[in-house]
Amino acid sequence: MTERNGRPPQLRLVGSDGNAAPAVPGPTSRDTDWAILMAHAQDGDRSAYQRLLREMAPYLRSLAARRHRDPSDVEDAVQDILLTVHAIRHTFDPTRPFGPWLVTIANRRFIDRLRRQGRRRDRETPLTPGHETFSEPQANLEERPDRHELEKAIDELPPHAA
């Protein structure tokens, strides 16, 4: 996101005296909020961690929807990213922006999923009606067992041993 002058937006901070601090390029409000939530989560705050995961999910869904067409792939990708974030949450440095850390994880998971799908597609052959043994709906109708023969065969079975 850039302002009209082509530079990144400036973060406006207000000092304790109430005056505006010098403008400094910085992360977005959401990025800052998520970084704070992750820092609290790293300190063991479960409610902050749950809130972070809930807030991240729609954002991750929108990223995944750009890469995957199938809605189930989108959800699987989001879950994969959330599991990865959970597994490596200790690597986040609260002094650095959260957004790039999260997007890097997401992009790596997307690439991994697409590679797996490509390898699977290369190994598998899609089934067509020609692969079916009985493609006609009327198949095997004349091979129905006679009811009397079936009852006789059942009667001839040995008794159930306990």
Topology:
Layout (H helix, E strand, L loop, with lengths): L9 E2 L12 E2 L3 H14 L3 H22 L3 H18 L9 H26 L23 H9 L7
Antiparallel strand pairs: 1-2
Helix pairs in contact: 1-2, 2-3, 3-4
Name of the level-1 CATH class of the domain at 25-119:
Mainly Alpha
Instruction: Name the strands of the widest sheet in spatial order.
Output: 1-2
The secondary structure category is mainly alpha
Please describe the biggest sheet, giving its number of strands, its sense, and whether it closes into a barrel.
2 strands, antiparallel
Q: Do you know the CATH topology of the domain at 25-119?
A: Rna Polymerase Sigma Factor, Chain: A
Order of helices and strands: EEHHHHH
Residue runs with pLDDT of under 50 for 5 or more positions: 1-17, 20-26
Number of helices: 5
Terminal Cα span: 76 Å
Indicate the radius of gyration in whole angstroms.
29 Å
Strands, total number: 2
Helix content: 40-55%
Strand content: under 5%
Shape: elongated
Mean pLDDT: 79
Secondary-structure arrangement, i.e. CATH architecture of the domain at 25-119: Orthogonal Bundle
For CATH, the homologous superfamily of the domain at 25-119 is named as: RNA polymerase sigma factor, region 2, helix turn helix motif
